[in-house]
Design a protein that fits this description.
The protein is built from one helix and five strands; from the N terminus they run βββββα. It is an alpha+beta fold.
Length: 103
């Protein structure tokens, strides 16, 4: 299972942790647009999805959304492996903490 323990927000949707350390090509049926959403206070949201979904040539997209303005993300990142995704989640977490003035 994919470890989400680095996240400090409130997980409101999670299919991401169902992914294993096996190659992503073998998990293609689980790679969809809606994988993870985490709330940070009332204004900020961390969202993770695979685009295009179910496509072996896709990538994870990580976005930070403020006030539900999906057309204007506050931060975006991309990853093609689970290791890269962990790095992008760490970066997004730093961005969220800076915006919330959290330690």
């Amino acid at each position: 299972m994919f470890d989400l323990s680095l996240l400090t927000g409130k997980i409101i949707f999670d299919d991401l942790s169902l992914l294993t350390d096996q190659p992503l090509a073998g998990q293609i049926d689980a790679l969809k647009e809606d994988l993870l959403q985490v709330e940070y206070g009332k204004q900020l949201l961390l969202d993770v999805g695979w685009y295009p979904e179910f496509d072996e040539d896709g990538a994870f997209r990580v976005v930070v959304i403020k006030d539900h303005h999906w057309d204007y993300p506050q931060w975006t990142g991309q990853a093609q492996t689970l290791a890269e995704l962990t790095a992008r989640l760490t970066e997004a977490q730093r961005e969220l903490h800076a915006r919330l003035d959290l330690p």
